Amino acid sequence: MLDVAVARARILENLKTCGQEIVPLSQACGRVLAQPVHARTANPPVSVSAMDGYAAKAEDALEGAVLHIVDEIPAGHPSAVTVQKGECVRLFTGAQIPAGADTVIIQENVQREGDHAKLTASARQGQYIRQQGQDFQKNDELLPAGRRLGPRDIGLAAAGGHVWLTVSRRPRVGILATGDEIILPGDPDPADGIFNSASFMVAALLQQQGAETIMLPIARDNMESLTTQFRQAATLDMLVSIGGASVGDYDLVRPALAEIGLQQDFWKIAMRPGKPLMFGRLGNTPIIGLPGNPVAAMVCSIVFVTPALHTLMGLPVGTELQTEPAILGCDVKENDARQDFLRATLAPSPKGAVAVATPFSRQDSAQLNILKQSQVLVLRAPFAPAQKAGTPCQIIRLP
Ligand SMILES: Nc1nc2c(c(=O)[nH]1)N[C@H]1C(S)=C(S)[C@@H](COP(=O)(O)OP(=O)(O)OC[C@H]3O[C@@H](n4cnc5c(N)ncnc54)[C@H](O)[C@@H]3O)O[C@H]1N2
Ligand code: MOO
Questions:
Q1: Where would you find the membrane-spanning parts of this chain (predicted)?
Q2: Peptide bond just before 44 cis, omega within 30 deg
């Protein structure tokens, strides 16, 4: 059985990004930038007023001074005048600072009498002026390639003057449930049918992470049905199968893939849940064979499929699993040869430091209700000794 970290590295090793496309800014949130974004202009492009008031020379902006108002400047309508000594212009928030002026007196500090402004307070040089380029300069790199765009990035790209962005194409990921007992949610209830929960859960995770998912028809436990569905791999960027990966007589995923030319990389890893995980390539398409137990399928999707998807999308992915420290909320017994990923709740520590992760006593990989109630997975190394409540541990947050 392969070590989890080695298996993860082997999956990520030869994956390539799957190309670029250009999308409108309004559709770009959540996508991954494939080309950096540079500012078309400085922000602000010219120095502007941050307040409604009067622009003047700082040397004139003294309490008690009376200045001659020589123009009025709304935002978006620059003035042609140059402010001289003893003069000021009326202007509004966002309006360009006229030549000759170097301070803004807010209107609350001015008594206006006709075309004269009497200052009731002094103003410093540069006060209430947003200097040209104070946010960014023309050609500055605003956003690097490989960044997943959030709402604030969209705002910055818009401020930089961009209406189209070059992003990674959404990987097309096929999801193939297998098994004679698998039926669709919504099918009539047969006595021994199992609703296909795993495909919907894995598809939801991968969509949330940026994939376009394609739900393939359920393959039955025979070679013809499985090879027919697996041949669709050629049209996909990645194919994820669920079930039929273990050692039973009807676990035909590997034989079916072998028949149509799978180059298998590995099968079976030292992990619980997730032992029968398989990875290989059919032509150019990576194939990940997940175990059928739905919790095992989900945990393997978090640990292996999601980073593979991120790599296809051009997101930087570390080879190490990203974990966080916590402390155990209950005793745990010694571990065997498989790295454990225990479903657990997470609660704030009474001392306010590291949070407390408490694994459920039931860890059956078919129990979706316990998975739903969990916030984290507690990681336990192979052969870890028994540990008491209060011992430090490492966790992964569940998406
Ligand atoms: N003798 C051994 N038996 C098993 C071993 C082993 O090492 N030796 N490994 C066990 C482990 S660990 C796992 S995990 C399972 C995985 O087996 P398969 O990948 O072959 O999965 P299936 O047998 O097809 O299904 C297992 C279980 O999950 C249900 N299932 C399958 N697909 C779905 C789906 N899409 N949605 C919901 N539930 C699904 C299926 O009905 C089975 O109950 O093997 C152990 N056996
Ligand atoms: O990988 Mo299985 O889910 O451990 O029973």
A1: none
A2: yes
Which ipTM was obtained for this model?
0.98
Residue 349's pLDDT band (cuts 50, 70, 90)? confident
Q: For the chain, how are helix, strand and coil distributed in percent, rounded to 5?
A: 20, 30, 45
DSSP code of residue 140: -
Instruction: Mark residue 30 as left, alpha or beta (left: phi above 0; alpha: psi -120 to 50; beta: remaining).
Output: left
DSSP letters spanning 333-391: PPP-SSEEEEEEEEE--TTSSSPEEEE-S---TT-HHHHHH--EEEEE-TTPPPB-TT-
For residue 102, how many other CB atoms are within 10 A of its CB?
19
Contact 240, 288 (CB under 8 A): yes
- Sequence-distant (6+) residues with CB within 8 A of 353 are none
Question: Of all atoms in ligand 1, which is nearest to the CA of residue 366?
Answer: 28
Tens-digit pLDDT profile for residues 265-292 = 999 999 999 999 999 999 999 999 999 9
Which domains are delineated in the chain?
A: 4-17+170-312 (3.40.980.10), 28-40+139-168 (3.90.105.10), 48-130 (2.170.190.11), 324-397 (2.40.340.10)
Q: Which atom of ligand 1 is nearest to the CA of 181?
A: 41
Position 389: which residue type?
A: A
**pTM for this prediction:** 0.92
Cis peptide before 273 (omega within 30 of 0): yes
| Residue ranges in the chain assigned as alpha helix (H) | 4-13, 151-159, 197-209, 223-230, 253-259, 294-300, 306-312, 368-373
Give yes or no for residue 317 having a pLDDT over 90. Answer: yes
243 CB under 6 A from ligand 2? Answer: no
Mutate which of 4, 277, 293, 336 for ligand 2 pocket (most atoms within 8 A of beta carbon): 293
Q: Work out the pLDDT band at 299, boundaries 50, 70, 90.
A: very high
pLDDT range class, residue 91, cuts 50, 70, 90 = very high
Pocket test residue of 293, 336, 365 for ligand 1, highest count of atoms within 8 A of CB: 293
pLDDT at res. 145: 97
Share of the chain above pLDDT 90, in %: 94
CA distances from 340 to 4, 182, 194, 378, 382 (A): 10, 27, 26, 8, 7
DSSP 3-state of 122: coil
Q: How far is the CA of 275 from the centre of ligand 2 (A)?
A: 6
Per-residue pLDDT at 241 exceeds 80: yes
